[in-house]
Amino acid sequence: MNLKELSAKLNLSPTTVSRALNGYPEVKEETRRRVLDAASRYDYSPNARAQGLATGRSQAIGHVIPLSTKHEMVNPIFGDFIAGAGETYSSHGYEMLISVVEDDRADDAYRSLKRRGVVDGVIVHGPRMEDSRIPMLQELGLPFVVHGRASGLAQDYSWLDVNNRRAFQRATDFLLDLGHRRIALLNGLETMDFAARRRAGFEAALTARGLNPDPGLEVSGEMTEAMGHGSALALLDRPMPPTAFVVSSMISAMGVRRALEDRGLRMGQDVSVVTHDDALSYFTSGADVPLFTSTRSSVREAGRQVAQMLIDRIDTPDAPPRQVLLEAELTVGRSTGPAPKQ
Amino acid sequence: MNLKELSAKLNLSPTTVSRALNGYPEVKEETRRRVLDAASRYDYSPNARAQGLATGRSQAIGHVIPLSTKHEMVNPIFGDFIAGAGETYSSHGYEMLISVVEDDRADDAYRSLKRRGVVDGVIVHGPRMEDSRIPMLQELGLPFVVHGRASGLAQDYSWLDVNNRRAFQRATDFLLDLGHRRIALLNGLETMDFAARRRAGFEAALTARGLNPDPGLEVSGEMTEAMGHGSALALLDRPMPPTAFVVSSMISAMGVRRALEDRGLRMGQDVSVVTHDDALSYFTSGADVPLFTSTRSSVREAGRQVAQMLIDRIDTPDAPPRQVLLEAELTVGRSTGPAPKQ
DNA sequence: CCCGTTTCCCAAAGCGTTTTCAATAATCCG
DNA sequence: CGGATTATTGAAAACGCTTTGGGAAACGGG
User: Fold this and answer.
1) Is the CB of B19 under 7 A from strand C?
2) Please, what is the average pLDDT of chain B?
3) Of A246, B25, B167, B271, whose CB count within 10 A is highest?
4) Distance between CA atoms of residues B257 and A129, nearest Å
5) A77: confidence class by pLDDT, cuts 50, 70, 90
């Protein structure tokens, strides 16, 4: 069933039917009712491609995801973010389009989406410091919102980020208050902007207490379970091992925990661990005291909000860019305790 | 730059340019070269919507994902599956379209995708037993491939599944060989087809040795960390606690491990654990002996293959449906050992 | 009752491709 | 050399919608 057929059944012109369907005011209420009624009876929906061709819009939003495991997105937080964004999209009549590409082809992917008119806007994931995608998208004229943000860029653009710096500063402060002095940082890849900010927060907390950050206690890498395990083991085997860890992801924290077990150390007593927790729906452990003390921020909620920001941006392109900074909660679990006496 | 403009620059008709671009034989080699050359110089790509309208195809594949956490897809395996499928799509010129919907709206979502011509086919995730989506899609005439399969359906359709039954039978056999006799099963939601098959494999192994499956040792639910933890605690606190666990997901297995710790039991010595491992890229722990003994099967690879099957199906709709059954590997880790002496 | 407004509807022109049908130029074969 | 192919290109229709520019009927005020 297409528009022409439907309008034939109604003895109306396609024009009128289209207008009735799209809520234009110049059609009689009774006619509109008839049209709407027939549309649902004959199970008619406009063909999306034809509609898109006529309106110049695709009602779709793109997410470009680099293929490699290295990237922070093909990882647990992906599913939750997508779920959040998808909620917003579907309630606004947008489709979500995901483009998985070779790592070095991301720029081409954005260009291609724009050129072929496949999407009306994109969400930028995992921004790096001075991320070149931002000026590029601005030049392309493709509406976008960044999940996270990129330091060191002159331009003004829309983003939504967690206050990573403050979160890690608070986490570190918390450990310092418990008497810990040798605190290790297991950070994400520091080409990622969020990781750089986390480190800054970590070091700021130390410096504020007159402590010198020890580069030997700072590790950065992909946030896998193995990375947490390996790095923690190496650190624990040092002559002066850390008494506490600040860890950038739940998954790595599990690796740290395994390392502690390997060394016969009790988490929360011999060694404390604070981790960042993206509040993944399948990981939240119900009502009891959580295993890990963590800085917590819902990726799903971030997805919802970022999507909304982008839709607003597409609707009113001339509005100034918006920035949203979410604060993470610091939730106390069973993985932290006072520093052991020397 | 659109087709008309490009052809004007070349002093050719849009017809010829289109044909040159699409590799039709009736255009002179030299002309084709000129066209291709100009296209890349002026950075031209055909508008996807116009192309779609003209050809009647959208070059996109849909994935309908129910919103709720309950569903097995908004979970860690999602990201990996998507990455695998996305690889295949992008190398075949398809886009991936994800539709996140309220749980009870999934059927509408499929219908709508079809009606509006948004996608050329869909992948069905997380089939339940006698899943009604399968006959529905068949009736709709929307090409599809199921990741997993659905018992109890008469029709012939394409699917790719892991041999869940055999995997769990082998896992259970392995534990029986080690002398375990009280073995617990922590299964996924048994409305899910794969969970039913896993249970069947588990029970078959027991029965083959003349053991009666004890319903008190079989738990089914969402495969979260908390579920693993809670169920394991309850089982361990029974008068005759199990000496081994067969667990349906890595995440739940981590919960089991936490429960063992809570009770002061050593995993691999006091209690054995075998889990199913979807070989998620961020979880694989490098070269050392893995923590968990597991039945292992790569979700990413499944994604790649399912996508390919669907594309083939779209290209040749008249070919008979295909079924692929992948075998899981049984990989020995440090979570299993001989049953303790009574 | 007349004329300017509204109200309601329609024909037709796009949107940017592909594809059918036809035309011209080049080539072939006897 | 002439008719029949074959190679190469183009004009125009089609895909299914939205939107512009009218136009006719109904209305309202003087």
Assistant:
1) yes
2) 93
3) A246
4) 38
5) confident
